[in-house]
């Protein structure tokens, strides 16, 4: 395959990449990114991989970046890891620099899934395979592989947690005798992130029968994705929207029982707004049921303390492993193994994908899912902070 040509120029390219990496000052991750295993005698030899992560403001991306980096280094590759501070021009510049620096493969978690077309063209022209990491890159034929979780199922799991928290279903989503009605508000992720609509669709398909029967109501009337979406997944934006909803809809007698939130950062913004408006400090005290995603340490503590109801655990170690496996396959001139070749159409092609499963974390399974698996220690959870 096309990598054959690349192999011949690999050593020079890798050396240049390491030089450029050492000079690259910008990017929050540039210090950790300047890893240098170019002299490794392991399988990867002098090959190097550019790893572009969206932001360091969320723990999950730091964990992803670190796990991908160490997996690649263990396999003997040099790594240029960069975080882009959720800024699109920063990310495009970082990827441009990786390509001109001569990386042999790219692993990219995009900020805006539609903003990387010219970078991907340059990568293809240089025979650099591109693995789209967790967020699908849209509008380009040059996305070679996609590693992620089953994002539709993430949305189903979030909505199921909400329904379970309200008592409308059991943990598996089977309806109970409870008829409601319960009042909920709905939040969605960033509109430029392909995952956000998958989460939303999975959640809305799950909630729809309960909305149709009247067991659930959305008193604000804001039930469209565009009304619920939070650009760049910003906690402050979610807090502001929740405050606005409280003012417009809940300043009288109307009660609020639950909030669908697709990411822990948003959940914490929502909880701050709710607490500030006097809804109570814990769910037991009257705080609405708020869902989440990513098992961020601050939210896991809130779940342990009965403040946030749930989160979706995506084991970033497993995702990082898959990204490394896929990259190694490309660099060996092979095609990575996909377990889904139908779902992820990026507008130009269906991208072969490897999708992982997720788990829902509640207060009573934190130990089993997060501590026993070594994801967080009990001390970290108690402190609400990663060590
Ligand atoms: C990821 C989520 C994450 C969100 C915000 C999405 O693309 O799939 O796990 O919560 O971005 O960072």
Brief characterization of the structure:
This protein has 15 helices and 12 strands. It is an alpha/beta fold.
Keywords:
387 residues; alpha/beta; six-stranded parallel beta sheet; four-stranded parallel beta sheet; 15 helices; 12 strands; 43% helix; elongated; disordered N terminus; binds beta-D-glucopyranose
Average pLDDT metric: 90
Helix content, binned percent: 40-55%
Shape: elongated
| Stretches with pLDDT under 50, minimum 5 residues | 1-43
Distance between the termini: 44 Å
> How would a crystallographer describe the biggest sheet?
6 strands, parallel
Strand order of the largest sheet: 2-1-3-4-5-11
Strand content: 5-15%
Ligand identities: beta-D-glucopyranose
Oligomer designation = single chain
Can you count the helices?
A: 15
- Secondary-structure class: alpha/beta
Q: Can you count the beta strands?
A: 12
Radius of gyration (CA) equals 22 Å
